[in-house]
Amino acid sequence: MSATTGPATAAPARSPGLVLLVVSAAVFLSSLDLFIVNIAFPVLGETFETSTGALSWVLNGYTIVFAALLAPAGRVADRIGRRRVFLAGLATFLAGSLGCAFAWGVGSLVAFRVVQSVGGAMVTATSLALLLHAFPPARRATAIAVWSMVGGVAAALGPPIGGLLLELSWRWIFLVNVPVGIAALVIGLRVLPESRDESETRRPDLLGAVLLVVSVGLLAYGLVDAPDRGWGSRVVVGAFAGAAVAGALVGLRAARVPRGVVPVLPLALFRVRSYTLANLAMAFFMAGFGGMLLGNVLWLTEGWGFSSIEAGFALIPGPALAALTAIPAGRLGARIGCGPVAAAGTAIFALGALFWILQVGPESGFVTDFLPGQVFTGIGVGLTLTNLSAAASSSLPPAALATGTATFGAFRQIGATLGVSILLAAVAGAGGELSGAERGWSLTVGLALVASLLALAVGRGHHADLQLPAPVAVPAPTPAPVD
Predict the structure, then answer these.
(1) Which domain holds residue 128?
(2) 317 with 169: CB under 8 angstroms?
(3) Residue 360: what are its φ and ψ, rounded to 5°?
(4) Stretch 431-447: mean pLDDT, rounded?
(5) Cβ–Cβ < 8 Å for 313, 442
(6) In which band, very low, low, confident or very high, does the pLDDT at 463 lie, cut at 50, 70 and 90?
(7) Structurally, how many domains does the chain consist of?
């Protein structure tokens, strides 16, 4: 997220309250689309008569590109103007939403989801910086708190909103973005202040971003396709090999990035142990979380035969508890340490999935067999996300905050992408819906426990004394000698 500490220019906001409304609405839409499509997954599969592997790219296409473009979008915004990039991103997101609503097949739907993700990354990367420049220092804490809660609210409302809209048509889960987005765009043109970092002369590493998309995309493709083709097939082995090569090239590119270019992976930051561990913990946790979200939708609709709207409302408690516990979790982390609280959160999250493995049976029993697990997972998410984010940001020096948080956000989305792919690989070929669901929950338990160990190793969290390369500035012309 683009919130640099360098010199910046900014016109005063006409109305900070309206700026908060516009930014929150846009971030809500981009976050909502990370959750609302999960509930539509079974319906989309029936509509397009395609495999779950092919359909997974409706989810993965969004998260992969979103992750890769967060840092470059923020860097571009720092240079040319955050208001400009935010509004362009919102317009791009709306265009992608319209395209998704009128998609004629899985291929076109995935393509328009990628367009959506480009806009979503531009909006998310600039949103916090716009708020910081619109609000006076005394009111920034409140604005940031509202901004932080938007993602939790989107997660809680995504399933029920999606379920209600699916009663009309799957196309409405994308069309719902349009009126809200247009209103935010019109108001934003009038009230958003422009700001930029005048000291920022570097440009983002777009080649590195492309290599990152290729690496994660090939890895996800290999995982999703392996159950059908076979783990030893040429296509699958080639996908894994290509992912490894592209990943290595990302690292080499980051290590030898040209002068004046900001690498897609800031290797200097990963010399900070707590920051590296927080990123890895988040990636593993989000892999379990992303797989759980989709797996629960598939179980409720296919295992217990819930309708889309019933499943949507049944999934509210978990995200709602996550949102409610986020602020108290942050206070607890400040008192006893981010790492220990996040480790406890991931363990509680794993306990919820373990409850489902032990309790859920073929006969529907939502209140006794499913709801208690949601209580555990919801509280676990609230404890984990808040404190891993705080652990990562507290490990960074002020000058690296924007780059570091954008990289952390990318790890979060990449983890969710791989979680969906691993889930689909795990449940493929299971002997029935319950067996597939149990495989998915077992996967969630394992990934969450790995995240718990990593979070525990983070420790309390501290500010690092890290020296980063100084921004490359354009030298002023040397005056001619005076005779």
Answers:
(1) 12-193
(2) no
(3) -70, 135
(4) 90
(5) no
(6) very low
(7) 3
